[in-house]
Amino acid sequence: GPALCVLRLGHNDLGSVEPALLRPLVRLDELDLSSAELNSLDPKTLASLGALRSLDLSANRLVSLVPGTFRALRSLETLRLSGNRLAALDLYAFVGLHNLRLLQLAHNLIGTVETHAFGGPSFGLSEHKLNLASQKIVELGPFAFQGLAYVAVLDLSDNFITLLRNNTFAGMYSLTHLLLAVNCIRELDALAFDSS
C-alpha cells in the first residue's frame, strides 16, 4: 500500500470513498475516480495525499464541493471535474491548489461565474488552462476570473452567455486563447477584453 503511486478506480460503482481507505497512500501520484458514481467527497478523504499530482473526479454525481476539499493537495497539477452536476463554484472550493496547471469543469450545470469566483483567500492557482465549456453559464460577473493571472487558455464555449461586461477578464495577464464560440452573445462592453 504505502509504495503505491497510481490508483485507478474509475468506472466502478463506489458511491463514496471512506477517508480511511486512502490514508496510507502518502506516495500516491495519480488517483482516478472517474465514473465511480460518487455523490459526494469528504475533504478528509484526500487529507493524506500531499504528493498527488493528478486527480480525476469526472463523470460522477457531485453537486457541490465543500470549501477546502482539495486543501491538502499541495502538489496537484491536474484536476478533472467535468461531467458532474456542479451548479456553482464556491469561492473557497479550490483553496490551497498552488501548483494547478489544468482545471477541467466542462459539462456541469454552472449557471453563473460570480465576481471573484477564482479569487478566494490562498487561491494561488497557476494553472494554464481552465475549461468551463458546455455549462449552463448565462452570466459572468465583473472580475470573475481575477486571481488567474497565469491562465493562457480559457474555454467558455457552448454556454448561454449573452453579455460580456467590462472587467470580466481583468487580471488575466497571460490569456492568449479565449474560446467563446456557441454562445448567445448579443452585447460586448467596450472594455470587455481588457485584462488590466
Mean pLDDT comes to: 88
Output the number of helix runs.
1
Low-confidence segments: 121-127
The portion of residues assigned to helices is under 10%
| Principal-axes shape call | elongated
Q: Report the C-alpha radius of gyration, rounded.
A: 17 Å
- Walk across the major sheet and give the strand order: 1-2-3-4-5-7-9-11
Strand pairing plus helix content: what structural class? mainly beta
Number of strands: 12
Largest sheet: 8 strands, parallel
H/E element order: EHEEEEEEEEEEE
Distance between the termini: 49 Å
**Beta-strand percentage?**
15-25%
Kindly summarize this structure in a few lines.
With 196 residues, this protein is an all-beta fold.
Descriptive overview:
The chain is mainly beta and 196 residues long. The chain has one helix at residues 19-22, and strands spanning 6-8, 30-32, 54-56, 78-80, 102-104, 112-113, 129-131, 139-140, 153-155, 163-164, 177-179, 187-188. The longest helix has 4 residues, at 19-22. Helix content is 2%, strand content 16%. It has an eight-stranded parallel sheet with strand order 1-2-3-4-5-7-9-11, with no helix packed on it. A two-stranded parallel ribbon has the order 6-8. The chain has a two-stranded parallel sheet with strand order 10-12. The N and C termini lie far apart (49 Å). It has one helix and twelve strands; from the N terminus they run βαβββββββββββ.
